[in-house]
Amino acid sequence: MKTKVICGLAVAIVSCSFAEGRWTDLLKGGNLDQWTKDAKKAGSWEMEADGSVHLPAGVKAGGLFTKSTFNDFELMFEWKISEGGNSGVFYRAANGKSPEYQILDDEKHVRGQWEKSRAAALYDLFGRSDDSSYKPAGQWNTGKIVAQGNRLQHFLNGVKVVDVEVGSKVWNEKFSKSKFDNPETYGLMNGKIWLQDHGGEVWYRNMKIREL
């Protein structure tokens, strides 16, 4: 009898935990209802039949922003870049001066020459620690971002490639050499997720997020 009670309690605890960390599909229903487009730009991101959101080549659409803001979260997504393409997933966004999960064709884009701007890097701060999981332009990659407290992590096709602490000694050293000038707020603010229009054709799909 005691065993049944304990098991029942354990189930209840697990159920509550799952409820608190419920995943939200950011492209649910094959539409952009949970996103805001850049009103200053004439072009547009498009939803495709397979449920992916697509930025066509040569279209000046501007960024695509979530309506909701997030601080501590886990974001899962798939991405595909065109030849020579460049994009990024920004988070804890503060007027663009915020962490970016780099999306890039490492082979054909000039930024592929530098570790800090290759695919899955924490742009201009930390390059990816492992190159083995990268898939080239035209192929789908799986990305994941985990932001919790001061810790930021990037994953590429199941491999953790960035794991850093905002405000740590190595962070401060890297930040001082970067182009950013907002150390008090960078990577620490509650903000939107936004997809970057950097002039290259790019696709995103299966985007889901849960708060931690």
Spell out the key features of this protein:
212 residues, mainly beta, Jelly Rolls, 8-stranded antiparallel beta sheet, 5-stranded antiparallel beta sheet, 13% helix, 34% strand
In brief:
The chain contains 2 helices and 13 strands. The chain has helices at residues 2-20, 169-176, and strands spanning 24-25, 35-37, 46-47, 53-55, 64-70, 73-81, 86-90, 100-104, 141-148, 151-156, 159-165, 191-195, 202-211. Strands 1, 3, 4, 6, 9, 10, 11 and 13 form an 8-stranded antiparallel β-sheet that branches. It has a 5-stranded antiparallel β-sheet with strand order 2-5-12-7-8, with no helix packed on it.
Task: List strands and helices in order, with pairings.
Layout (H helix, E strand, L loop, with lengths): L1 H19 L3 E2 L9 E3 L8 E2 L5 E3 L8 E7 L2 E9 L4 E5 L9 E5 L36 E8 L2 E6 L2 E7 L3 H8 L14 E5 L6 E10 L1
Antiparallel strand pairs: 1-13, 2-5, 3-4, 4-13, 5-12, 6-9, 6-13, 7-8, 7-12, 9-10, 10-11
